[in-house]
Design brief:
Largest sheet of chain A: 5 strands, mixed
Structural class of chain B: alpha+beta
Largest sheet of chain B: 6 strands, mixed
Distance between the termini of chain A: 46 Å
Order of helices and strands of chain A: EEEEEHEEEHEE
Largest interface: A-B, 26 and 29 residues
Structural class of chain A: mainly beta
Strand order of the largest sheet of chain A: 8-1-2-10-9
Radius of gyration of chain A: 16 Å
Helix content of chain B: 40-55%
Strand order of the largest sheet of chain B: 14-18-19-17-16-15
Number of helices of chain B: 22
Oligomer: heterodimer
Radius of gyration of chain B: 34 Å
Strand content of chain A: over 45%
Number of helices of chain A: 2
Distance between the termini of chain B: 53 Å
Strand content of chain B: 15-25%
Number of strands of chain B: 22
Number of strands of chain A: 10
Shape of chain B: globular
């Protein structure tokens, strides 16, 4: 754990409600404004629908709803973070992008042990920045994989 | 290396189909001397490529085959019906060998050995009998054998090898050949510096290198073995081989090297001369020395797909632009509008041209069928002639890939169930040989494939009895002849009383029908007792675009594939009747079809039955051949849409086949009607559509 050996990880920080989250910048393809999505039938509540991203059909995940923070009513000021999750490309609906952070690996603290299952599933660590706390999100498992998970 | 291998297999496929086509020509008597040559070249080239990849089994079989073909080519063996039949079988075995080399199933060695044995007998006996008193000619193998060097000598062979321009032009590589030599023994290769010219005389197109190779090999190596290495570049290089006893002492090799430059050609001159006729004969096999004018290129499919995606976006963008201009209220005859019209025209042309790149003749599927027919005919003991028509009919690659399976099924069915045994045909006053006609043509924007046999036709009594027996139809159902014929596509129906080895294997015709419908296609059978049956399969020309009906459901825009829509209608309130709790049926065409509210099934509005009557109803044909009525709010129009995958970034959604992008840039979902009906049925509130209540 030498300090010079680990280059700082670059993370994109964004806001949902009064909480701040971040994802690894390497997973992020682009950030674009909100445009109305076409709803999908029988989809989980956190899947807002699909939009046209230059000819590709892109599913939009309401990250707030996915994390159990309540559904977002999207407006023009909301943004979509286009991210690569495994082999898929997914749009994440968030309120606003706040920052780009360079964080050394050792600055990332383990997630405090709280009971919330969603937090355990998606929050891979927390980072203290200027007196705020930013949660590092892992994107795997964001989309429903099987019919079983489908909870319309 | 993998890429070269892939190219080799691609070429093999082409060569094998040339081979089969040539043999079929010979069989029908349409072939001539050039056909024989073409057939020979095909086998020879397969063998050549296989040799380079060390596919020994393949090479060995191809060699036997080639030897026999050579007998035919030189006119010592007449290719009668029996001979061509054997050669067709040999072509099948060769094709099996190629498949095995690709990583496919292993070759049936016994069958292959039998064919090889027959080939050898054919070549050996005929050649021995017919050509006993002739001059031994310089055919491939005989020439090589006649030059046997004193065997038993372990020694140093000297090989002088000068690749000519033609060698490189035919995509051979001298280096690979030298490596190949290493398989025979220790190789010491050096460049002959004296053969080099100065830079002033240098011509970039002419190879200058001459290799002087010293090969230390065991007694099992003779000149024929060495010459074999260079077999495929004969005529494309200067080659002299000097046997160990002619080469002299190994220790003085360095001293002698220079002398040999002079000595070798002289010494080997008879060899070279003797080989000349062979070289000439074999020259066409490597593509000849003539420069080939390339009229086709191989392109990675991914690149074409990317192009198609881009054009799809261009179409969408153009539509968006047109809509914006329209909204902006610009004058219809203004410069902008005129320019936009031109753009639309161009866009459409580009789209058509790009789609044409992926269009391929159905030949690639059709040419696999003669073999199938031979095999099925042999297994059933029937005599069958396959006639194909319209092989040049073009269709999108995505569709081509899906054609093979249904055609295979239809042909199997036609031979197994359609055609009678020779005796029965004879008794019925027909030719003992049955005919199966496979044809393709374009008809109103679709490709129509027909498989027709001249057999006994469908035994309607029996089909009906079986259908009743298996519960496919009610015992008292009133069906037209046409409906009875098409019962063979009903799930749970198989006509063969005893499941036969041919048609009973694998999937039934119901599965075939379902997979065809999934592609937006239709399949029907028509039959005339005693005269035969005809399967008719129609498919869209491409799976990249789809003709759709754009409809409105609530705030949503959806696309329904035109291919499933039978009729659109505005039902009267009196025709909508409740059935059971929450179920509704629509009286239509003298029957009742379940009425399905799309918005309800997709979860976009509450209980379907509560919705106001009115709106528009699309009468669609479901996978079971039954009808269903889909209620939508309004029809926007008919449009060709570009199909986009939902699975790529999300996953399959029940009731949705795919997505598309409309003129306003928004995504619209394309309905999967069968899936929708299935979803509805599982929900438990809809009555089952009546199977075959309506024949399309």
């Amino acid at each position: 754990m030498s300090q010079t050996d680990t280059p700082p990880r670059e993370l994109i920080a964004f806001r949902i409600g009064d909480q701040e989250f971040c994802v690894d910048i390497r997973a992020v393809r682009e950030i674009r404004g909100w445009s109305p999505a076409t709803p999908l039938p029988l989809a989980p509540a956190y899947v807002r629908g699909v939009i046209n991203l230059r000819g590709a059909v892109l599913p939009i995940v309401d990250l707030g709803a996915r994390l159990g923070l309540g559904t977002t009513e999207p407006e023009a000021r909301h943004v979509i973070i286009v991210a690569r999750v495994g082999l898929r490309t997914v749009g994440l609906l968030v309120e606003a992008v706040s920052d780009i952070l360079g964080v050394a690996e050792e600055m990332i603290q383990p997630t405090p042990d709280i009971a919330c299952e969603v937090v355990r599933a998606f929050v891979k660590g927390v980072i203290p920045v200027d007196g705020r706390m930013i949660s590092l999100i892992a994107l795997d498992g964001l989309l429903p994989e099987t019919e079983v998970e489908e909870a319309a | 290396m993998e890429a070269i291998r892939a190219t080799f297999f691609q070429e093999c496929d082409e060569l094998l189909s040339d081979l089969e086509a040539g043999l079929l020509d010979l069989q029908t008597g349409a072939g001539d001397g050039e056909t024989v040559n073409a057939v020979f070249r095909a086998v020879h080239s397969v063998k050549g490529g296989a040799g380079a990849f060390g596919l020994d089994d393949l090479v060995r079989f191809a060699h036997v085959f080639e030897t026999t073909l050579d007998e035919v080519r030189t006119g010592r063996l007449a290719a009668g019906p029996d001979e061509t039949a054997l050669m067709l079988r040999a072509a099948d075995v060769l094709s099996d060998h190629v498949t095995a080399a690709k990583g496919g199933p292993a070759v049936d060695q016994t069958a292959a050995a039998v064919v090889a044995g027959e080939l050898e007998r054919l070549a050996g006996v005929e050649a021995g009998g017919g050509a006993a008193d002739e001059e031994p000619d310089f055919g491939f193998v005989p020439a090589a054998l006649s030059l046997d060097e004193p065997s038993g000598a372990t020694g140093e062979w000297r090989v002088r090898f000068t690749p000519l321009a033609a060698l490189y032009r035919n995509a051979n590589d001298g280096l690979l050949l030298l490596r190949e030599l290493e398989r025979l023994g220790d190789v010491e290769a050096r460049l002959d510096m004296d053969a080099l010219t100065g830079l002033d005389a240098f011509d970039a197109e002419t190879p200058l290198l001459t290799f002087q190779v010293q090969l230390t090999a065991g007694p099992e190596v003779d000149e024929a073995r060495i010459r074999e290495v260079f077999e495929f570049v004969e005529g494309d290089c200067d080659l002299t081989i000097t046997a160990p006893d002619a080469g002299g002492d190994a220790d003085t090799e360095a001293l002698l090297a220079r002398l040999m430059l002079e000595a070798t050609p002289v010494e080997a001159a008879p060899v070279t001369a003797a080989e000349t006729p062979v070289a000439v004969a074999a020259a066409p096999s490597s593509g000849g020395g003539e420069p080939l004018v390339q009229t086709t290129i191989r392109v990675d499919l991914e690149r074409v797909d990317r192009l198609i995606d881009l054009v799809g976006e261009l179409v969408i963008n153009q539509a968006m632009l047109a809509q914006r201009v329209n909204e902006a209220g610009l004058a219809r005859n203004g410069a902008v509008a005129v320019g936009l019209d031109d753009l639309e025209q161009l866009t459409r042309e580009i789209q058509d041209s790009v789609m044409a790149i992926r269009a391929q003749p159905v030949k690639s599927v059709f040419q696999r069928m003669p073999r199938l027919v031979r095999e099925v005919a042999a297994a059933t003991g029937k005599r069958v002639r396959l006639v194909t028509d319209g092989e040049g009919t073009e269709v999108d690659k995505t569709v081509i890939e899906r054609l093979s399976e249904p055609i295979t099924h239809m042909i199997r069915n036609a031979i197994d169930h359609g055609l009678e045994a020779p005796e029965a045909r004879h008794a019925a006053g027909k030719a003992e040989e049955g005919t199966v006609r496979l044809s393709a043509q374009h008809r109103s924007g679709r490709i129509v494939i027909e498989v027709a046999d001249d057999g006994r036709g469908i035994d309607r009594e029996r089909v009906r009895a079986i259908a009743v027996d298996r519960g496919v139809i009610a015992a008292d159902a009133v069906l037209t002849d046409e409906e009875i014929d098409n019962l063979i596509f009903a799930p749970g129906f198989s006509t063969a009383e005893a499941v036969s080895d041919i048609s009973g294997r694998g999937v039934g015709m119901d599965v075939v029908k379902r997979s065809i419908q999934a592609l937006g296609g239709r399949i029907v059978i028509t039959s005339r007792p005693g005269l035969g049956s005809t399967f008719t399969l129609s498919l869209p020309l491409t799976l990249a675009v789809l003709d759709g009906m754009v409809v409105t459901v609530g705030d949503h825009t959806l696309v329904v594939p035109i291919s499933v829509i039978v009729e659109t209608l505005q039902p009267k309130a009196a025709d909508i009747r409740p059935l059971g709790p929450g179920g509704t049926v629509l009286a239509v065409r003298g029957g009742h079809a379940p009425l399905i509210d799309i918005g309800g099934v997709l979860g976009w509005r509450g209980a379907a039955a509560e919705g106001p009557p009115g709106g528009v109803t699309l009468l669609v044909e479901s996978e079971l051949g039954g009808l269903a009525a889909l209620r939508v709010d309004a029809i926007q129009g008919q449009r060709q849409v570009v199909i986009k995958s939902l699975e790529q970034n999300y996953r399959q959604v029940e009731g949705v086949a795919a997505a598309t992008i409309l003129g306003d840039g928004r995504v619209a979902l394309i309905l999967d009607v069968d899936g929708l009906i299935a979803t509805r049925r599982r929900a438990g509130s809809a009555p089952r559509p009546q199977p075959l209540a309506q024949a399309s």
